[in-house]
Amino acid sequence: MLNNLFRKLTRSMSVFTQEINPMTGIKEWVLKDEHYDYFQEIARSAFADMLHDTERNQKYFQAIQAAVTKMKAAGKKAHVLDIGTGTGLLSMIAVKSGADSVIACEAFRPMSQCALKVIKDNHFEFDIKVIPKRSTELTVGEDGDLKHRANILVTEVFDTELIGEGALSTFRHAQNELLTDDCIVVPSSATIYAQVVESPLIQNWNILKSIANSDGEILLNTPSDLKKCPGSVNLHDVQLSQLPPNSFNTIISPTPVFHFNWSKPLKFTQSNQKLLKVERDGVPHAVFVWWDLCMDTESKILLSCAPYWAHPDFNQLIKDSPNTEYKQDLIPWRDHWMQAIYYLPQNHIFVQKNDEVTLISCHDEYSLWFNLKKATTAHIDIDFVRPMCDCLLHIAYSRTRIGQINDGKRNKKYINVLEQLIDSKSICLSINDGSFISLAMLKLGAKHLYCIESDTIGQNLLRKYAEFNNIGADRLTILGKLSDLKIEQLNEIQVVFSEPNFLTSLLPWDNFQYYILFNSIREHLPKDVTIIPSKGTIKGVAVEFLDLYKIRAPLGECEGFIMDKFDKMIDLASKLSDYPVEPQPLWEYPCKALSEPFQMFELNLNNDLSSHDITNEIDLIGSGKCNGVVLWMDWDLNGNGQNIISTGPTSKIEVNERIVWDMHTRQGVYLMPKAKQLIPNTKLRYQINVRPTEFRINFEFTFKKIKKSS
Known about the structure:
By secondary structure, this protein is an alpha+beta fold. The protein folds into four domains: 213 residues, Vaccinia Virus protein VP39 (Rossmann fold), CATH 3.40.50; 207 residues, Hnrnp arginine n-methyltransferase1, CATH 2.70.160.11; 134 residues, 3-Layer(aba) Sandwich (Rossmann fold), CATH 3.40.50.150; 127 residues, Hnrnp arginine n-methyltransferase1, CATH 2.70.160.11. It contains 18 helices and 35 strands. Strands 24, 27, 28, 29, 31, 32 and 33 form a seven-stranded antiparallel β-sheet that branches.
């Protein structure tokens, strides 16, 4: 059935669809398969990531077995409802555990069709009824989807925030309409934990700092309203276990703030206050949040999403593997359930050890938020209104970009170069999105600055910065596009500057948009114009990812069930809809180098760009399995190699050692379709195709076959 569907779809017509070219920022008409959106939705579903989570699968298995056994011990038949079945894994576990009937619902049509195929491959097609509906659309009765209410519910409707996918409404509807009063729910309950921390690193992802010159003197101050903004309520999901241990201090240790019993009535809005004692002096900046699932009614099976330092199994795991170099690797890895950072409102209270403070925790149907106040004898009123960004910075820019703007080492390199070039006669042009450092040219004495800023929010923020720092409108011109500049204005420009950064850029080389824009005005600029940066180089390194490869790796089998049809569906959908390189913040995903870093392509902005087809080979000299290649950009500010802005490693790459990646950019990741165990003389062949007329760069990596000696 599923194969026939794919054959039909892949023989379908092609259609033109609109998409933004990240290297130009312009919407283009692109020829795509007419079912492109369908395949993209499948490829983005991330079911494989969950199914690679062995601990999750095994604990669901144990809890389902316990539920079926308990129901039958009470002299009742086990009637199971599986909400959001996905591949049908939990339903098949229920049948294998002895359930008398199993109803599985799945609203995502591609997955419900896949579930039917997977279930049939495992010979459960007569034991499981798959219904392609949302659980809230199910009917109960003689002619309904369920003949009678279920007395066991199994489901996995959680996200990093626990409730962000609508878990509360799903469980409440099921309790009221689909389940018996004595129903056993798997999982049984959940607890959310909060840990209050001080961390300048984390604060750098939320609030903009001042920009200084090379002597440490302030050039640009941050407007007051940006400092006071409560920020966005949206969680910042990260792999907390990968944070450098010295990057935060604990103000309040992990404490439970919410508990949900999935069998009991649930509230869509809740708040609570906890009077807690401060453990060390500091300024609370943020709250780390994660949750645990109690899988069974006896509270014997616990699945924790805690970072390593708070994980209930961590000490035992260390005892079992005392020689593990990176202790954080011992806890189960999962990317579908990460941890979250919630930024506290910017009241910047200083607390001392043994002070009493009140941690305020709130949630609505889908979101959490937090506040911290010094304790008083009076009851603290809790405002259910979610804190919202009123400065627009957190709406316009990602956490990664805000952290990049605050990167002092990076900024110092820019300032060092600009200080050597800028004088009172300088007329400058900045081509960027959201570059506040470009205003530093005026504070360094430039006569005039033209800022090209495509985003209206970015334009308003630049004006706000300029006004707050007493930069007169007579020296600053902010424009939405380059074509707004007159030719006589272009004739006077002496310095063209870019960070480079553009809102449409996803991968590091998408910021070649800077070159494309610069090239469009090149003929009108003076021949001796200075370009910063003057070169851009794409670099790469072959790696072995510890875990990240799982997001694309085939399952084969999962808990003894055949998943071949699911693997084929995801593989086909990915090939038809995905670009082979994807952006990832690799500081969160450990990998070790299996080759020396290599240069793939260099663009000199002083030269014209022509088409390039480059093929080369590199030696894989490390030990282990090569399952990916990491790509990044190095920007040479003045062309002499002395001031490099890198989006890649922050220290020298050593073969067979873990790579330390820049925390304020995303690197490009190419995951190999099949990992290769390295043996002597193994080589990686790469091909890069640069097409300036299409403004696209394509990559391909393959392992070179080793000829056997005769």
